[in-house]
Structure formats: structure tokens, C-alpha cells
Amino acid sequence: MRGSVAFLICLVVCTGTAHGYPVGPPVCLEKMTEQADLVFKGTAISSGPVQDDSFKQYPDFVVEETQFKVVSVIKGDRPPGDTVLFRHYDEAPEPRGRMFQPQHYHFVPGRSYVVFAKKGEPAGSFRQLWMNHTIKEDQGVFLCPDEKSVAKKAVKEVVWSELTTMLASQDTSDVVYAVRQLDQISGGRKGVDTLSDFDRRDVLSAVRGLMTSPDPKVARAAIVLVGSHNPYMSDERTIHWLATVGSGWFPRIGEMDRKTANIGGKLYWKDLVALADSKAPDATRAMAIQALGLVREPALREPIESWLADSSPAVRASAALLLADFPGPESCKHLTALASDPAPEVCSHVARAIGFAQQPELADVLVRLLADEEFNVRQTAAMSLLSFSPKNKAIAAVFRANLENQEFHPLFLLSLARDNPAEYLDALAKAVEEHAEPKHFWGGQIPAFTAWEILFKYLQARSADEVRSGKFDRYLDAMEKVGNYSSSEPRDIYAFYLQRGMTERAKAFRQAAKQAVNYDLDYYFNQVDANPSQYMRE
Questions:
Q1: Spatial distance between the Cα atoms of 445 and 450, rounded to a whole number of angstroms
Q2: Over the stretch 208-241, which tens digit does the pLDDT of each residue have?
Q3: Quick one: average pLDDT of 182-210?
Q4: Closest to 262 in 3D by CA, of 248, 241, 285, 278
Q5: Does the pLDDT of residue 428 top 70, yes or no?
Q6: Of 67, 92, 127, 227, which sits most exposed with the smallest number of CB within 10 A?
Q7: What mean pLDDT value characterizes the chain?
Q8: Across-strand partners of 49?
Q9: Can you tell me the distance from the alpha carbon of 171 to that of 396, in angstroms, rounded to the nearest whole number?
Q10: Between 344-357 and 329-338, two packed helices, what is the crossing angle to 10 degrees?
Q11: In whole angstroms, what is the distance from residue 111 CA to residue 45 CA?
């Protein structure tokens, strides 16, 4: 149970969707094809509930059987009568909220799909490949643009043809769907959800022209793809990129790949600049600028100068963020001035840029923004400040000045105390006892638990005589108020006392800890009794 609820991990790195249960990696087209007994393009005729005991029952989901008219068979034998019965999960008509979802699909009558299926019961029926979804939640089915038979025989060729044909659709939702599918299966977002079914450069070439679409939704979907999901394009990725490039400490925040590259931005930066300078909607222009993140093309300095003076706050904000790619005196000058911009989004992006560029010489600017009237500006300033190491005296001074900042308490304390706990024992003890947590916390390990870990590690390093002397009793009391995170913490506290010959205190703590939980802690305490020295928490 160690760490079972001791920390909260942000799960937006991959898909933007957080799951409270294990989810497997996506499966490439080749492996899906291997697993399938039948791969076909078909047009949905109708769907209805079916009784099938091989499908477990889940709240808010129903088992359905969809009848397809077969357009083309890509793998397997053509079914008799040119129809297929495909069994699958679908959402219930009125879902009430759920903690778990199986792999499920919803088919619209009259729409065509490429479907990967395996044989089921009764004979002649087919079913979805797996019951539990992967990180790519819709795997196993691709929407098609039309009912035309396929000219290609290889699965990859068919999927490529269907998706690229859909890019020319007059239906906005179809085009956006095709862009996102091509993005996902060509390595668009590096991480556990990475697929490489298609060459990224081929996908970029196919989608590039859609950036100038008069339809804002289509244009922005294309820009997201061309911009390679670089961390400048997403507010949600701010904390993860700061954890990656910074010298500070964000406990249990997932880092990105420091070598993250923006291949689309590098290839088509001139297109993005032209779009940013066009008469497109301000939001589209601003997104085009952010899609240039990590490109670091020297020729961008000139257009950035003009964008910084643009009448649109969104454009100015994006240009301010792009300054992170060109750190130096000139950028410092711009960022200092832009910190007084009347638009909060500009100020927020100034704070991000300072952290992304790791410019601690602008700590005073972040201090100003930490007092801004807009919470989002204050929060981004705090994130950027915490990306710097308190080994820098100016940064440490800022942290010490903000120890009582209730919005972000105890984050500045934790940064200071990590390498120098002795100076902050009382504050750490208070944070543990009061279960301190910032307002609107951005994720990662629970701060009060982090405070406990720092305090516990400090006490572990003290000699047995010191611990028994009584001078640390104030902190031992706080240590015992760790909270109900998992069985590991009370077990390790109990072992800590036994290792130091404090049997009476160990006995009293054991009794109190057992009363505080509704499961059998004795199982873990008995393990410690057998060999106390084995439990040395690291």
C-alpha cells in the first residue's frame, strides 16, 4: 500500500484525461491487425442491447450489438450476407457519473467505420478486441468519410487513405477528428501514448494547409499538430515544463523530455509567422505564435518585436512567452516592461517565460506578479519562482519573505527546508499538523505529506541519544500526526521508535494508530516486530 494515496500525480501529460485506475499503452495498427480476426469497413445500420455473459456489467455502460453493412473486408473472410454483428460496450443513455469505463464505442447509423474485431459467440458474431481501454481510448475503430469501398489492401494504407480523405470534408467535426487521429498515431505527443504508425513529416505535410482554414476550429486543430504540442501551447503543461527545465523542486510532478523538439514548428515556421501576421482571428494568430515554441530560429526576433506591440492581448501574451527562447538583456527588458501590461494574460505569460528561460535575475518581476490582483497571474508567478533553486540567495530571500503567503503555503517552505530542514523544524511540524495545502493546488505530492517526509528524514538522521533526550519531542508529536495516507507511514514510525529503544512510545503510538484506521495495521506492525532494522525509510 506504500504511497497508495500519499501523493496526487497530474496525468495530463499524455492525453489530457486523468484516470483513477491503471490504463495500458496504446497499440499500433500492426498489432491491432494481428489481434483481429476481421478488419472491415462497414456502414452502421442499427444498434441495440444484447445479453452476453462474456461482457461484465459496469454502471453507466450497456452491451450492444451493432449491425454493419460490409463495404470492404481488409482482413479475414467476407461474412455471408455482407453484414456483420459486432458486440461492444456503449455508454448508457443517461450516465450518472463513473469511476471506471471499459473500452466502448458509439456508432451512428448511416456512418461508416473501419472496425477491428475478433470472433465471438454465437458463431458468426464478432466483438471488440479488448474489454479495457488503452490510453488512446477509441482504439479499435476509425470513423470514415464515406461509404466507398477501399482501394487499398494493407490496413495502414486504408487508414491513411480514409483519414486524409476526411481532411477535405465539409464537416468541421470530421476534419478535426481526422487531424487528431493523424496526430495521435504519428507520435504527436511524446510519452506513454506515443504511436508511430505514420511518418510525422508525412502527416505534417498533409495537415499543414489547414492552418489557414477559414474555420477557426479546423485551423486551430492543425496549428496544434504543427506546433508539436510544445509546452508553450498548453497552460496545463506549464508546471511539467518548469519541472523539466528548472533547478527547483516539484515533488511528484511528472517531467517532460528535456530534448522535446518541435519538428513541425521548425519545418513550417515561416507559415506560422505568416499566419500570425495575417487577418485571422486573434486567438488563431496567438496560437500560431505559441506553435513556434522551442523553434529558436534567430529570424523570429524581428516579428516578435512587432507582436509584442500588437493591439491584441492574446498576441502580446504569446509573443511574451516566446521570449523564453531568446534569453538575454533584451528579453529581460521586454519582460520587465510587459509585467505592467493591463491584460492579465500577458502578465501570466511573462511569469511563464521567466521560468521557462530560467532567468532568476528577474525574480523581482515575479515578486511583483505574485501580488497581482488576478489569481492566475499570482499562481503562474509562484510556479516560476518555485522552478528556481533556493541556493540562489535572491530566490531564497523571496521564499523566506513569503512563508506566510496563505495561497501557496507551504510550498515556499518546502523548497527552503528540503536541503536545510533544521532551520524550519517548527514550520514543518505545523504544516504536518495542520495538513497545510495551497489554494487551488496544481498537483503533485500532497504538500503536508512532503513536509512530513522532510521532517521524518531529518529525525531519522539524528542519533538515538538525541531522539531520546526529549529535545525533539515537539517534532516527534508532529511526526505521529502524519495522517492516513497508507500503512507505510505508521509502520515506519513504529520501526523508528523500536530502532531507538523507545519501546513505550512505540507501544503507545501503535495503539493510537490502530484506532485511527479501519483496516488491520497489526499485520504491518507485526512485520516490524520480526525485524525492526529492516524498515529504514529512504
A1: 7
A2: 999 999 999 999 999 999 999 999 999 999 999 9
A3: 88
A4: 241
A5: yes
A6: 92
A7: 93
A8: 64
A9: 55
A10: 150
A11: 8
Quote the pTM value: 0.90
Tens of pLDDT, residue by residue over 103-128, are: 999 999 999 999 999 999 888 899 99
Q: What nine digits make up the cell of 514?
A: 490502530
H or E, element range at 304? helix 301-308
Question: How many residues does the structure list for the chain?
Answer: 538
CB–CB of 483/435 below 8 Å?
yes
Please state the rounded mean pLDDT for residues 174-203.
Answer: 89
Q: Model confidence over 374-388: pLDDT tens digits? A: 999 999 999 999 999
Q: In Å, how far from its chain's centre is CA 299?
A: 32
Q: Which amino acid is at 480?
A: E
Give how far Cα 265 sits from Cα of 5, 152, 455, 473, Å: 40, 32, 46, 58
CA distance 321 to 276: 14
- Calpha distance 356→369 (Å, rounded): 16
187, 200 in Cβ contact below 8 A? yes
Question: Do 301 and 320 meet the contact criterion of CB atoms below 8 Å apart?
Answer: no
Under DSSP, is residue 424 helix (H, G, I), strand (E, B) or coil? Answer: helix
Supply the pLDDT for residue 16: 40
Q: How far apart are CA 417 and CA 428, in angstroms?
A: 8
Q: Which residue type occupies 136?
A: K
Q: How far apart are CA 117 and CA 181, in angstroms?
A: 19
